[in-house]
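re: the backbone from monday

yeah here it is again, tokenized this time
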């Protein structure tokens, strides 16, 4: 072997050794680096990865529903879509803002400002519709997301709107029952882990899941009956508009249970928003307005005087022929020139002079004490945010004139619900029992334990006197009379005080009714503020009370047969039917009644009330198509006698007609 060949072989070996050494060093460095990353930096890097790819997010459960006593929804939570962004993850804020502005309809400068922010979360738009949400998702902009959130819906619009109140954008109760029961209704916060990719897109939830059902708020069940609430609102709106009044209230109470069945304020207020430009429409007048009750105070006065044995029903008082110069301080007047009349006629004909003289005989301390016992000057204890306590000065500040005027309802301020509470004492045979507005959760009655204020005989005596107000000749409440049924009541026509002092030419017309008059089962209070031109409670408020009572009794199936016969002679009785009764019968908003539908042939529905016809169809699972307007069925297709299978071939159509 030549010397040259030997040198070449030696260089090849050197090159092989060098290459092997380089590879060895490379792999050794990789192992050292891997060991450093795994052992030395491993915990820190794992924590960084966890922060980048796993995020702990917080969500809130659905707000609890509010339902009436029969389970009908009054307020519910519905799911909306909201668009939000993490500005730190948005790579090109200007382009993103331009694209989003076209979809969301928001000003470009506002979106640009939000996307250039330094925070990690910002809302771009809230409660968008499904179409807009889908368009935002299609843009696929990193850092911009669409998330569900809950908002409040009131399916019956203005029904009991002031009582229910409303919630804000963050689903927090701001007024009414929504505010009072915020802790009970509000959904609980729930935390869950989300895994995301490098673009921040959500991949899946961890094994903990998203158990939002346990985070939902609790349901509130009211004592309100939606159908009676509808009757009260309908009659109240009619009374206010026909008499050109400014506002009105109506409350219906079941006497034995003290449960409030209707709580109506007018003008109406729709918590969904958009229908009431006047913010005063949301005022819960029943609990917040402090008013002088006027002559509706007289039954309370007479009950107190009877309890103290100061008077008897036949006790006579000189009513000064309608005008009494009270110690040369003021003149007290009656609407008629009554002479000497008995106590029962003082109530029946509503004599201010007679009431003032009874009050003077009773005395300031005793009258003030009974006012306190029936609940004047203190909140009722109902779950009503901001409830007024009324205005009743201490007895030490009463003059003789104050005593006289308070006896017929001037110089003292009460809320309508306080007045209802006071009359409930008389209706409940003298026992003061706290009114109830909520069935579940149960109310704490320790605020007002049941106490006896008047003896049963005293309460029944006043009930009989109130019966004469409606049933006796020349009674001031005869317009509340229902043929075949004895009602009791008391009218009130309170002259309103001026802001600068004294009394003006504006009045508050009110009427409290008992159904029936003795041992009443229901109580109805109606007030109309500033009616014109007639301002008497017996003319303005009593007819509304009558309408509420008649329709409610018919709906409840409590009309005596004699009343039904009387109504039959006059024509169809006011039926508890409205357009939404179809939805009620079919279970859209009201649970349907269980009605057995026998036979394979379509029955004859012509002439039936709409509600009854809808119930029959609901029994077959049929949703009818309605045409026209009215409350009874005028025509139907398929025709009577057709096989039910015909409904599968064409829709069941009902043409409505007005009741004859």
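seq for it, each position gets an aa:
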């Amino acid at each position: 072997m030549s010397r040259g060949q030997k040198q070449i072989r030696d260089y090849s070996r050197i090159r092989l050794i060098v290459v092997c050494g380089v590879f060895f060093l490379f792999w050794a460095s990789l192992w050292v680096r891997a060991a450093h990353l795994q052992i030395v930096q491993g915990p820190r890097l794992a924590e960084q990865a966890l922060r980048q790819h796993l995020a702990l997010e917080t969500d809130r459960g659905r707000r609890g529903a509010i339902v009436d006593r029969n389970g009908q929804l009054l307020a519910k939570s519905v799911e909306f879509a909201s668009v939000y962004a993490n500005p730190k993850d948005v790579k090109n804020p200007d382009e993103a803002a331009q694209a989003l502005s076209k979809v969301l309809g928001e000003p470009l400068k506002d979106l640009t400002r939000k996307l250039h922010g330094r925070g990690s979360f910002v809302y771009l738009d809230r409660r968008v519709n499904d179409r807009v949400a889908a368009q935002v998702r299609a843009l696929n902009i990193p850092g911009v997301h669409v998330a569900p959130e809950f908002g409040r819906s009131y399916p019956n619009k203005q029904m009991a709107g002031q009582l229910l109140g409303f919630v804000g954008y963050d689903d927090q109760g701001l007024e009414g029952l929504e505010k009072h029961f915020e802790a009970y209704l509000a959904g609980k916060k729930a935390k869950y882990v989300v895994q995301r990719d490098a673009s921040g897109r959500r991949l899946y939830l961890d094994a903990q899941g998203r158990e939002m059902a346990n985070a939902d708020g609790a349901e509130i069940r009211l004592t309100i009956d939606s159908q009676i609430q509808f009757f009260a609102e309908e009659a109240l709106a009619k009374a206010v508009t026909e008499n050109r009044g400014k506002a009105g209230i109506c409350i219906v109470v079941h006497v034995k249970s003290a449960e409030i069945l209707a709580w109506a304020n007018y003008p109406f207020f729709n918590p969904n928003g958009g229908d009431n430009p006047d913010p005063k429409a949301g005022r819960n007048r029943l609990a917040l307005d402090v008013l002088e009750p006027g002559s509706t105070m007289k039954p309370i006065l007479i009950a107190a005087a009877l309890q103290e044995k100061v008077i008897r029903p036949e006790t006579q008082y000189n009513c000064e022929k309608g005008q009494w110069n009270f110690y040369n301080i003021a003149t007290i007047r009656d609407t008629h020139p009554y002479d000497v009349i008995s106590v029962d006629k003082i109530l029946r004909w509503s004599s201010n002079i007679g009431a003032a003289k009874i009050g003077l005989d009773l005395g300031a301390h005793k009258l003030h004490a009974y006012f306190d016992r029936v609940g004047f000057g203190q909140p009722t204890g109902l779950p009503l945010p901001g409830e007024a306590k009324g205005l009743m000065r201490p007895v030490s500040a009463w003059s003789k004139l104050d005593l006289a005027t308070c006896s017929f309802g001037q110089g003292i301020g009460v809320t309508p619900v306080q007045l209802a509470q006071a009359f409930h004492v008389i209706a409940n045979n003298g026992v003061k029992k706290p009114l109830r507005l909520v069935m579940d959760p149960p109310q704490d009655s320790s605020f007002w334990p049941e106490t006896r204020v008047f003896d049963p005989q005293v309460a029944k005596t006043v009930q009989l006197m109130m019966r004469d107000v409606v049933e006796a000749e020349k009674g001031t409440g005869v317009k509340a009379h229902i043929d075949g049924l004895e009602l009791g009541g008391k009218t009130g026509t309170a002259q309103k005080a001026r802001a600068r002092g004294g009394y003006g030419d504006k009045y508050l017309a009110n009427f409290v009714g008992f159904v029936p008059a003795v041992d009443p089962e229901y109580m109805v209070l109606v007030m109309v503020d500033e009616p014109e031109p007639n301002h008497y409670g017996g003319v303005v408020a009593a007819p509304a009370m009558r309408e509420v009572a008649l329709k409610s009794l018919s709906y409840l199936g409590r009309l005596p047969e004699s009343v039904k016969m009387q109504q039959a002679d006059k024509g169809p009785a006011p039926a508890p039917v409205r357009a939404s009764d179809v939805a009620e019968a079919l279970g859209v908003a009201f649970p349907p009644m269980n009605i057995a539908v026998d036979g394979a042939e379509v029955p004859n529905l012509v002439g039936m009330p709409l509600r009854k016809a809808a119930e029959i169809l609901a029994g077959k699972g049929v949703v009818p198509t309605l045409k026209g307007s009215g409350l009874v069925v005028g025509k139907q297709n398929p025709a009577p006698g057709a096989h039910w299978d015909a409904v599968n071939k064409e829709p069941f159509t009902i043409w409505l007609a007005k009741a004859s």
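The first strand starts at residue 54 and ends at 60. The radius of gyration is 37 Å.
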